[in-house]
Amino acid sequence: MWSELVKSDTELPFFFGAVCACESREPGAPFAMRSKNGKHTSAVGEVLDFSPPHRYAHTFKFTAYDDPPCTIIYELKETDAGVEFSLITENVPTGSKTEKSMGRGGPFIINNLKAMIETGRPTTSGGLILMMIRLFEGLTPKRCRSENWPLSKTAPSTAR
Amino acid sequence: MITEEDADRLFQAMAHTTRRKILDLVRHTPGVTVGGLAQSFDVSRIAVMNHLAVLEAADLIISEKDGRSRRLYLNAVPIQLIYERWSDQYSEMWAGRVTAIKYAAERSAKKETKT
Question: Is the pTM of this model over 0.80?
Answer without folding.
Answer: yes
